[in-house]
Amino acid sequence: MKTKIILLALGMFSLHVAAQSPVSGFMQNSGEGAISLSYNFESFDKVLLVPSEIDGVPVFNEKSLSSFNLYSEVGLSDRFNVTLSIPYIDAEGEASQAVLDETGFENSRNGLQDLGIHLKYLVARLELGQGNLDLIGSVGIETPLSDYEVDEGLQSILAIGNGSTRFNSIGIATYKLQNGLFATGQFGYSIRNNDVPNALLSQLKVGYAGAKIYGDVYLGSQKSTSGVDILGEGFTGFFPAAEVSYTILGANVYVPFADKLGASVGVGQILTGRNIGKATGVSAGLTYSF
Fold this sequence. Notes:
Blueprint: H1 8-11, E1 33-44, E2 46-48, E3 53-55, E4 63-75, E5 80-93, H2 97-103, E6 108-112, E7 114-128, E8 131-144, E9 166-177, E10 181-192, E11 199-209, E12 214-224, E13 245-256, E14 261-274, E15 276-277, E16 280-289
Antiparallel strand pairs: 1-4, 1-16, 2-3, 2-15, 4-5, 5-6, 5-7, 7-8, 8-9, 9-10, 10-11, 11-12, 12-13, 13-14, 14-16
């Protein structure tokens, strides 16, 4: 089948917008591509701090994120693809009016988050058994699109991003059987500025890519290579400097319903982590293929 109908594997960003990898393990053919618009919602009222999980988000009791993400991937050749993502984020808290009056804080922050541009190159395609093994390399950048605040003390619990520019390099291996079953693994490194710790990125995804349906289950993780613990020793109130690590489990389903249109849904759950909300998220999107 043409892999362009499975763009949802990239175009959906369930938790924290970029918790899924910014690139997939599939390539678009030359001159082909797709554009996806997705809506994502996540919320949490538990925070994974050190040494233990706590109930209730400090000050705001609960935090929710609603986002719209425009995502596109185009095949400049059969071996070279480019991706683009533009997310708009709305973060909401549930602080009482009395707390807001006392602190001067607000229950909302919103705006354009980070522009993401990634390049993908098919290094090799090997025939193995009843399928093909694709080895893919990717590099990219994610950088703030707006001047959103990240250094407002406890108000920054509702920040829509970490305010850093991130340079990502990712290696991908995808094995696809002729019957549509596939498995793809990724491992990468993200270099970040603005005192945000660098991070190791990984994802394992298995699923089925057929002409009439696509589905996957994924396990992803981020491991910061430095940083401090929120409210711990060395924490100055600047939240982006925290060591943010997590493991996320999720699933996606995509169904084409017209010649060039398809719909997708997804779910995700933060299982474990450090200095992050224990969030549950859902996504829905539309994809136009060309």
